[in-house]
Amino acid sequence: MSDITLERVETQEQIDTLCSIAQRVWHETFDALLPEGQTDYMIQKFQSDAAVKDQMAHQNYRYYLAKLGKEYGGFVGYAPWYEGKAEMYLSKVYLLPEARGQGIVRVLFNWVEQEACKEGLSKIRLTVNKRNTHAAQVYAHYGYETVEAVQTDIGSGYVMDDYVMVKHIWQPGESLQELSREQLLQLINLYSKNWLAMDGVWFQSVERKRGMEEAMFHDVEAWKRFTVTEARRIRNFLQLPEHPGLEGLAQALRYRFYANLSHYTLTMQGDALLLRVLECPVQQARTRKNMGLHPCKPAGLEEYAGFARTIDDRIQCSCVSCYPDTQEEGCACAWKFTLEQS
């Protein structure tokens, strides 16, 4: 597998090699499937020197030769944005008999998918002769589904009698577009719970293996980095100015992952903003499992102070109450934010 390389077809020598491979594969495959003379006609029309050059120059075709070690074993040809559509047309996946069974075809199909992904295309389409059952089975193995049958007049009394096969490439977030508002809200809640579960899973793994002290060290280090990333993305999402002050912070705090998981209050008290988290899912879960409470104050200081500084670098954070330094009843933890006076 590691000896398989792909070369983009650009030179005359590469075009000659491609056409030679195509001629061998076409005659081997289609002489028994097509009327007499049609194979030669289609080679001349679609895979001759002139045809290949025209496809690359005017039809956005890209050809790559597949090399196994020092020998060429086949090629792939495709056209992104074919006919102006947001799809890729997979024109050719050809292998010489002696190159089959060595992993080249998998490399070629994977390559095409990566290229479609780079182009932002959600569909790869191909056509296969109805009588070419072996090729159709290979395409099906790699996830292509038959969507229709087509007959195409290619001139000189010849017709291509094909199946159209398609493979869908899901784009990031594409499935969300199918959901209702209610479903999206439910999914956001689910994602938030999943995030919290992952946070707990890794922490407890370290806790069991190395003890609470080392687990807390990694917890603090993780929050130093994550809270900045979360705050920066929320700030950009809300399009907050450089110094949005405590009002901007109050707005941003409402969009943290954690804000979807617990009840909380945000109160302006003079020149300070007070955040009180009324219940903590982490401590509730540890209590249910008969585990000791999480000594979260060190991590909480990094979490809230780092978040606030990223929203506005003038904001300072102090802990009002957080285990093990619990000073206030009626909440899981409480944090005070003030604006540094210049």
From TrEMBL:
<keyword id="KW-0808">Transferase</keyword>
<protein>
    <submittedName>
        <fullName>GNAT family N-acetyltransferase</fullName>
    </submittedName>
</protein>
<dbReference type="InterPro" id="IPR000182">
    <property type="entry name" value="GNAT_dom"/>
</dbReference>
<dbReference type="Pfam" id="PF00583">
    <property type="entry name" value="Acetyltransf_1"/>
</dbReference>
<dbReference type="InterPro" id="IPR016181">
    <property type="entry name" value="Acyl_CoA_acyltransferase"/>
</dbReference>
<dbReference type="Pfam" id="PF19620">
    <property type="entry name" value="DUF6125"/>
</dbReference>
<dbReference type="GO" id="GO:0016747">
    <property type="term" value="F:acyltransferase activity, transferring groups other than amino-acyl groups"/>
</dbReference>
<feature type="domain" description="N-acetyltransferase">
    <location>
        <begin position="4"/>
        <end position="170"/>
    </location>
</feature>
<keyword id="KW-0012">Acyltransferase</keyword>
<dbReference type="InterPro" id="IPR050832">
    <property type="entry name" value="Bact_Acetyltransf"/>
</dbReference>
